[in-house]
Each structure stands twice: as C-alpha cells, then as structure tokens.
Automatic annotation (TrEMBL):
It is an enzyme of class 1 (oxidoreductase). PROSITE patterns: ALDEHYDE_DEHYDR_CYS. The keyword Metal-binding does not apply. The lineage of its organism: Bacteria, Pseudomonadati, Pseudomonadota, Gammaproteobacteria, Alteromonadales. Gene3D superfamilies: Aldehyde Dehydrogenase, Chain A, domain 1, Aldehyde Dehydrogenase, Chain A, domain 2. This is methylmalonate-semialdehyde dehydrogenase (CoA acylating). Residues 14-477 form the Aldehyde dehydrogenase domain. One of its GO terms (biological process) is thymine catabolic process.
Length: 497
C-alpha cells in the first residue's frame, strides 16, 4: 500500500487538495511506493503567507537561540541518519552507502549553520570623520524559497533552508516530486528540533507550484539546483520578478590524467567518480582526458569499470543503483546509441543491463567510450548516467584548452605527481571547483560550492560565506554624538532620567 506524502503548511502536515496526483516509484522495479497531491496555487500562496507572518517574529529571535535550534536539528539528523538514508535509498534507488553520504553531506551544512552568530558579524570603523562612526549590520531578507532536484533529496535541501533560517529568514521548500519522502522527514525533524510554526514550509508539486514561488511578491530569494533548461528558466523568471536567484544548472566535468600520475589511484578514482550514484550527480567525472602516454591506461580502466555492477539499495556488493525513472533511462540509452552512431568507440556497453528479479527496473550498466570528439552528443550533453567518455590530448596546454572551451564550469580534476603542473592547471583552468589528485572536489560547508559559466546563474553560491550573503542584506549606519550633550554635574542622574 502506497503512502501519501504530505505538505507542511502553516505548522501542519496536510494531504493537499490538488486534483493532480503524482506517484513516487521504486526505481528498481517501478512499483508505486507513495504519492502526492500536487499543491494548488492557493495552497502555495497560503504557505508563503504563513512564512511571511512567521518572519515578523523569527527575525527578532536572538541569533544565539536560532543557533540552538540548528544545534538541536543537527543532533536529530545524526540520530536519525540511517533512517533517513533508508528512506532516501528506497525512493532514489541509491545504494545504502551512497544514501548515507547524501545525508551526511547535508548534516555538515546544518552543522555549519550552528556557527551563524560569527557568520553574521558586521563591520565597524570608528572616527570615519570627526566624532562620526560607521558600522554595518547583517539582516535577513524575509521569505526565501528552495527548489531542489531528485538526485540529492537530503543534501541539497539541507544546503538551503538551515542557513537561510539561521540567518533569520523563513523558508518555503519545493523538493523534487520524484523523491519527496526524504524532504518530508527532514521537515518533521526540523519541527521536532523546536522550530516555531511557519518558519519552514513544504509544498510538493509541479511547475504550478514553482511559478507561484517565482512570481509571488513576498518571495525575496530563490535557490535552485537542477537541469540547464530549468535553471535558465528559474533564473530568468525569478530575476524578471526582481528576486535574488542562485541557480545551479548542468555540468560536463573533465578529469585530466597526466602520465606521471599514480596509475592505480587514477583508475580507482575514475571508476567511482564516473559511475557512482549511477552518474546522476552534477559533479560526476564524465570525461577523462588522457595526456600523452597516459592513454595507455585506457584498457586497464575498462577492465576495472567492467567489474562494477548495479544492484539494489541494500546489496552491499552493488556499485550503484538504478536510474531514477524510465524516462531517465531512455534518455541515457538514446545518448549511448548516438555515441555509437557518431563514431565513438564503445569499449563497454551497459545498454542491456538487468538485475535478476528486477528486470523492470531502470538499469544501465557501466558504459565507456573512447575516441570521443567535441562534436559528439555524448560530449556536448550532460548524460546523467553511468557513462564515461575518454579523450586524448598531446600536452597539458591542449588539455587546458579543451576544458576551457566547454560551456560548463562546475568541477574538474587533474591527476599528476608534479606540483608545477598542478599549479599551472589550477591557475589557468576556467572552472569553479578544481581537484588535484581528488576526483570530485565538492568543498566542505565552510567554503562555498562555486560552479562557473553555464553551470551557475547568479552571483552568490551555495553554503559557506557566500550563502550567508545571499540570504541577507547589509545595513550601514553612520552615527554622530555630540560631547556637549553629555550630562554632567550634580544633576546628571536627573538628566539621564
């Protein structure tokens, strides 16, 4: 029997009155495990109104008390870590270990929000002019909103609402309709942590809910993670409605392998970084660029990749799980077929992959192409599947030129034993997040997630100091007090009254 996933509006969990129903399916067999009634426009507007009313009092709550809410919340998240990972694994298909990583990376941001007092500190200068002082305060914006994707249903919501709320804002979360059970549990735990009514709202649905958030005058800022097309729509529509927007979109991440690198480390890291999470992550390494003699390692990489097999979430031997939906699988298979037709050499083909007993699942096996060129679909498009494209470059300069020509700039890595090579690469590469002998360089929360170019639309990035700036406004005060007004003498006490 499937479960109805609830909205959380004005401090209450409700089924919603929308007539449109969306089923949540188990990607391993496509059986329905839950469903949602999409939020109607009035329901989304009621959530926004409740958040706006809650903001009036929440912004006045002492920053130390807001931090204590986050302290209680991160404790509850840790206490329920495995429970959250189990829910997440069952609705996304991720392996349990991968699901635990999803939850933990979100917990790290909630931990970071506990330090909000020091992150909100302003600045001051005494005597900017005679007897005049200037100082600044960091103040919240109002009602903020987050629109999150299917691939990290714990981590990405936790990128957003803990920091936004700790800054003194209230928040409306619209998670992916494909895996809404994990966000619901995150909200339940937030309520349990003592968050006041109305501070956090949860609405499920489709484009109707999104468009209300993008156009409503009481929403001050929008955070989004998702695909390129939707990211562009969110950014354009949100900014047209005069809102702050941070929109994290697509990626095509390159790993440059120098011939002086540690071969076994390269192979081990490439296998996990390319097909882990079924390739459904914006920081996946989907392109391996072999420089010079490093191309001789391609057969060994193929051999290592061929040993990885997908499986069920609780299969400890599985390398990764199924894709999220039949549509996602169909898209990946289409790109694999196009890669073959366009002349790439398919060294490893996972198109016909099945898992015994779960043949109806969205399975794609590890897939590897060689002789990939920049005009091929498998290079130009973000595949979002367990597919690795291999390319070759004659020199480091050629590799840098190749990577910099990409319209995306989310993440990149280089494997080398040379500090000078690494220094040149990190300095010249036009990508926001660079790993040196690190395959997926996602920064910890005290830094920010800094995608560039077509991977990000906006000014301030997620979590870290940049997120605090995104969710706040600076108020600068210039004050002057006259010494002649200081009360003195025997009547000073009376004067001060």
């Amino acid at each position: 029997m499937s479960t109805q996933v609830k909205h959380y509006i004005d401090g209450e969990f409700v089924n919603g009155s929308g007539s449109k129903q969306i089923n949540v399916t188990n990607p391993a067999n496509n059986e329905t495990i839950a469903f949602i009634n999409c939020a109607t426009q009035p329901e989304v507007e009621r959530a926004i109104a409740s958040a706006k009313e809650a903001f009036k009092s929440w912004k006045e709550v002492a920053v130390s008390e807001r931090a204590r809410v986050m302290l209680r919340y991160q404790h509850l998240l840790k206490e329920h870590h495995d429970e959250l990972a189990t829910i997440l694994a069952q609705e996304t298909g991720k392996t349990f270990e991968d699901a635990k990583g999803d939850v933990w990376r979100g917990i790290e941001v909630a931990e970071h929000a506990c330090n909000i007092a020091s992150l909100l500190m302003g600045e001051t200068v005494e005597n900017v002019a005679r007897s005049i002082d200037t100082y600044s305060y960091t103040q919240p914006l109002g009602v903020c909103a987050g629109i999150t994707p299917f691939n990290f249903p714990a981590m990405i919501p936790l990128w957003m609402f803990p920091l936004a709320i700790a800054c003194g804002n209230t928040f409306v979360l619209k998670p992916s309709e494909q895996d809404p059970m994990t966000p619901q549990r995150l909200v339940e735990l937030f309520e349990q942590a003592g968050a006041p009514k109305g501070v956090l709202q949860l609405v499920h649905g489709d484009k109707t809910a999104v468009d209300v958030l993008l156009s409503h005058p009481d929403i001050k800022a929008i955070s989004f993670v998702g695909s390129v097309g939707v990211g562009q729509y969110i950014y354009k529509t949100g900014t047209d409605n005069l809102k702050r927007v941070q929109a994290f979109a697509g990626a095509k991440n390159h790993c440059v392998i120098m011939p002086d690198a540690n071969k076994q480390q390269v192979i081990n890291n490439l296998v996990g970084a390319s097909v882990g999470a079924a390739g459904q992550r914006c920081m996946a390494l989907s392109v391996a660029v072999f420089v010079g003699a490093a191309k001789e390692w391609i057969p060994e990489l193929k051999e290592a990749l061929s040993k990885v097999r997908p499986g069920l979430w609780d299969d400890k031997e599985a390398g990764y799980g199924p894709l999220i939906s039949p549509a996602a699988k169909e898209r990946v298979l289409k790109l694999i077929a196009e890669g073959k037709a366009e002349g790439a050499e398919c060294l490893l083909d996972g198109s016909d992959c099945t898992v015994p007993g779960y043949e109806s699942g969205n399975w794609v096996g590890p897939t590897m192409f060689d002789k990939v060129t920049t005009d091929m679909s498998i290079y130009k498009e973000e595949i979002f599947g367990p597919v690795l494209c291999c390319m070759e470059a004659e020199s480091l300069e050629d590799a840098i030129e190749l990577v910099n020509a990409s319209p995306y700039g989310n993440g990149t890595s280089i494997f080398t034993a040379s500090g000078a090579t690494a220094r040149k690469y990190q300095h010249e590469i036009e990508v926001g997040q660079v790993g040196i002998n690190v395959p997926i360089p996602v920064p910890l929360p005290f830094f920010s997630f800094t995608g560039w170019k077509g991977s990000f639309y906006g000014d301030q990035h997620a979590y870290g100091k940049q997120a605090v700036r995104f969710y706040t406004e600076t108020k600068t005060i210039t004050s002057r007090w006259f010494e002649s007004d200081i009360a003195s003498g025997p009547n000073m006490t009376i004067a001060l009254k």
